Amino acid sequence: MELRDCGTSAVGTADADALPTSERPSPAAPSVVDRLKRLGGTVYVPPTDSNIGRFAVVADPQTATLALVKGLKYGDPDAAPGGLGRVCWHELFAADAKAAFEFYRTLLGWQKAEPMAMPIDSYQLFAAGKWTMGGMFDKIVSAPVPFWLYYFEVADLDLAMGRVTTEGGQITRGPIELWGDIWIAHCIDSQGAVFALQGQRAKTSGADDPQSASQIGWSAKWGDTSSRGRLLGSKRKGKRVR
After folding, report:
1. How far is CA 150 from CA 11, 16, 30, 84, in A?
2. Which of 49, 51, 64, 204 could bond 146 through an S-S bridge, CB–CB 3.0 to 4.6 Å?
3. Three-class SS of residue 94?
4. How many other CB atoms sit within 10 Å of the CB of residue 65?
């Protein structure tokens, strides 16, 4: 999934058709890859031409995997982030969120976004240009490795969750209310890849997840590993935030 930056696009290694074309490209040029290596990152696949653009598969110094892409051939670079079926939020479970942000700031030019009162002190919102793209925070110790989690926007969360289980996936957490009519769910697909969904619900008379009742919920759970809290921030004003 693509993460917009101020010069180079960071893209998670996923099906090209699922690329959220809203958070746009720029160079995965050798100079960027060289900079990544100098900053302590790892290159798994060097810059390579493909049908979606020139890309490189890399990892940050804390081993979270992503990709860099230049000349992405899909979507409108001026469009707002998100949209049905696209990634609307990018969340980094980091070993050290402060160090991770400095890495991505130096590599991609990301900026700290407007802060929100969070139950997790390390949670840092980040932006690429005018768009708030996601957040990063210190993962709990028992989480095996740092990783990026992508939230896909859906029109009906309950319908999408039903499709996950019908197709052999699992719902590991949720639905959880973030605010108003926006809910999330954490999932694992039929091949074991983790992802998340975000959208509205047709029926919201009560929270299905007891941890989300009467609160603005934040939660992460994969198998026996879990972390949760309350989001005390207000809704976005102008910029897209989760």
Report:
1. 11, 15, 26, 14
2. 64
3. strand
4. 16
Per-residue model confidence as pLDDT tens digits over 134-150: 999 999 888 889 999 99
Q: How far, in whole angstroms, is CA 76 from its chain's centroid?
A: 19
What whole-number distance in Å separates Cα of residue 69 and Cα of residue 108?
12
Q: Which two tokens mark 10?
A: 């960071």
DSSP result, 1-51: -EE--SSSEEE-S--GGG--TTS------HHHHHHHHHTT-EEEEEEEEET
Domains plus CATH for the chain? 2-70 (no CATH), 87-230 (3.10.180.10)
Q: CA dist 203 to 69, 123, 134, 154, 156, Å?
A: 40, 30, 27, 15, 10
Rg (CA), the chain: 17
54's enclosing H/E stretch is strand 53-59
What's the pLDDT tens digit per position in 164-184? 999 999 999 889 888 778 899
How deeply is 180 buried, as exposed, middle or buried, from its count of CB atoms within 10 A (0-12, 13-18, 19+)? exposed
Greater pLDDT, 14 or 120? 120
Q: What number of residues does the chain have? A: 242
Whole-model pTM: value is 0.71
